[in-house]
Amino acid sequence: MTRWASSDWHLFHANIRKYEPIRPEGFEDLILRNVRETLRPGDEFWFLGDLAFGGSAKSIEFLGDVFRLCASFMVRGNHDKDRTDNWFKRLGFKDVFPLYMVVDDMMLTHFPMRAVDARYPDEMAMINKVFMERGCRVNVHGHTHSRRSADPRCVNVSVEVADFRPVDLGKL
């Protein structure tokens, strides 16, 4: 089994290329193609937040069965709050976590444990607390898009730093 992670797809986000000019035209198709080429039955996939903008029907139709290719799980991002857990489960996620999940010695989050965004102080405090209490080795996160952390314990899996494809967590 290979354990994969990705984050910050921002499907159908009209202005994302304004903030992240590295994204090519048609980035949605590129991400989906790379995911379909990567995930295999028996694998585990962790999506670390900020999936899609716009109408539910458009997202469901576009994504199809991608989250059923293997066991898929989600940690919500700041742009996922308008959707219910059931909505994400209809897409194929087995479970949805509100802020973090610890898997082995990895803390999987949307927000990095190092404060990069003053808008989320409570989330940062909780992530840091749990990271220390659970003895985690690494914080696998999204949220920062093309920015990497100076903290070697923080690994950004946003699509902009991962060539628009899932990251193999076993290689961290």
What's the short version?
26% of the residues lie in helices and 20% in strands.
What report would you give on this structure?
This protein is an alpha/beta fold and 172 residues long. It contains five helices and nine strands, in the order βααβαβαβββαβββ. It has helices at residues 16-19, 27-38, 56-63, 85-91, 121-133, and strands at 3-6, 44-47, 71-75, 93-97, 100-103, 106-109, 138-141, 154-156, 167-168. A five-stranded mixed β-sheet has the order 4-3-2-1-9. β2, α3 and β3 form a beta-alpha-beta unit. It is globular, with a radius of gyration of 15 Å. 37% of the residues are buried. The mean pLDDT is 95.
Give the topology, please.
Blueprint: E1 3-6, H1 16-19, H2 27-38, E2 44-47, H3 56-63, E3 71-75, H4 85-91, E4 93-97, E5 100-103, E6 106-109, H5 121-133, E7 138-141, E8 154-156, E9 167-168
Parallel strand pairs: 1-2, 2-3, 3-4, 6-7, 7-8
Antiparallel strand pairs: 1-9, 5-6
So how many helices? 5
Task: List low-confidence stretches.
Answer: none
Query: In angstroms, what separates the terminal alpha carbons?
Result: 15 Å
Helix content: 25-40%
Based on helices, strands and strand pairing, what is the structural class? alpha/beta
SSE string:
EHHEHEHEEEHEEE
What are its keywords?
globular, 4-stranded mixed beta sheet, single chain, 26% helix, alpha/beta, 172 residues, 5-stranded mixed beta sheet
